[in-house]
Design a protein that fits this description.
globular, 327 residues, 32% strand, eight-stranded mixed β-sheet
Length: 327
């Protein structure tokens, strides 16, 4: 099949073992170009109309024996294309002048089904659980040289890689001044992926529309320690360090698009007696989520969590440079 890029270059994609997602020549342009949408890229709003390119979308038909199965998989692919994370990644790739996507092949779309009682009827809701896709990505300069028939010696350089697309995460470093040494708060909770029943890290959660830090950890901290993480007092360590150049910290850019917003909150002064009282309160907590008040200087050896250690590192450098004092 032949498709057209915004750079006025034609290319041919030959996939004899696969078929195009539908007969109307499905492309990313069809799903990503909607006039009522805007996307945040690097902290600035970018009009979605700049997405004027076309990329062939395929899905593997291996193991599918009838038209009903093929039609169902086609619908699954269309559902996966609605993912905001996938669409955001495609837009960022399009804005990167050094990389070119030539085709995306969906090899597996796994959906979960949820049965809901609605007006005496059982409604089955299907939701995308995860997607496996193959993306042909090339070094743009070499790729367009290869397309130019006058430069027969040039070859496209394919960029290898496996990627897990995930939502951004948010962590907060809480610093409590005292009459002895600075204190901070660690959360311990089960982390199945790490095979750990009480994995220590900084509190994780999310920011609400007012910029306040929210989530189960924030609720536990407020209920047990009477510390409210309101938006006006919460600073972004990643924004202070990187500005608008990077949206956050990428803990595993080699295989995942996930980035972390690292936040900072400086609490009011607490005496040693007050801190010991708070420690006794959190020691009596029940449930999987536990709160620990620890010396800030010992944080580097109390948690193996990369995002927590990164937050401590950024805090240390920003505090040393005076950047935290000026905001």
């Amino acid at each position: 099949m032949i498709s057209q890029f915004s750079g006025s270059k034609n290319f041919v994609v030959q996939r004899p073992e696969q078929v195009i997602a539908n007969s109307s020549n499905a492309t990313l342009k069809e799903y990503l170009c909607q006039e009522d949408e805007k996307v945040i890229i690097g902290g600035t709003e970018t009009d979605s109309q700049i997405i004027s390119y076309e990329i062939p979308i395929y899905f593997s038909i291996a193991g599918l024996t009838n038209e009903e199965e093929k039609s169902k998989k086609h619908e699954d692919v269309k559902e996966a294309l609605k993912s905001s994370m996938f669409r955001h990644w495609c837009r960022k790739m399009h804005l990167n002048e050094k990389m070119t996507i030539t085709a995306i092949t969906f090899v597996q779309v796994v959906l979960s089904e949820e049965k809901i009682q609605d007006d005496q009827q059982i409604v089955v809701r299907r939701k995308v659980q995860y997607v496996k896709a193959i993306c042909d990505c090339f070094d743009s300069l070499k790729y367009y040289e290869w397309l130019d028939r006058n430069k027969t010696g040039a070859k496209p350089v394919q960029i290898p890689g496996v990627m897990l697309i995930r939502d951004p995460t948010t962590l907060i470093l809480i610093v409590i001044p005292s009459d002895t040494e600075l204190q901070t708060i660690l959360i311990k909770q089960p982390r199945i992926a790490a095979s750990h029943s009480a994995f220590p890290s900084l509190p994780d959660g999310y920011l609400d529309e007012n910029g306040s830090f929210c989530g189960p950890a924030a609720d536990a901290i407020q209920n047990n320690l009477d510390i409210c993480l309101h938006g006006v007092n919460v600073l972004s360590l990643t924004q202070l360090a990187f500005g608008e150049f990077h949206p956050g910290l990428f803990p595993s850019a080699g295989g995942c698009n996930e980035f972390a917003h690292l936040l900072f909150y400086r609490h009011e002064f607490m005496t040693k007696v007050e801190i010991e009282k708070k420690k006794r309160i959190v020691e009596q907590m029940n449930g999987d989520l536990k709160i620990h008040i620890v010396p800030l200087a010992d944080l580097w050896k109390l948690t193996p969590d990369a995002k927590s250690l990164s937050a401590y590192s950024l805090y240390s450098r920003l505090e040393q440079s005076g950047s935290l004092c000026s905001v």
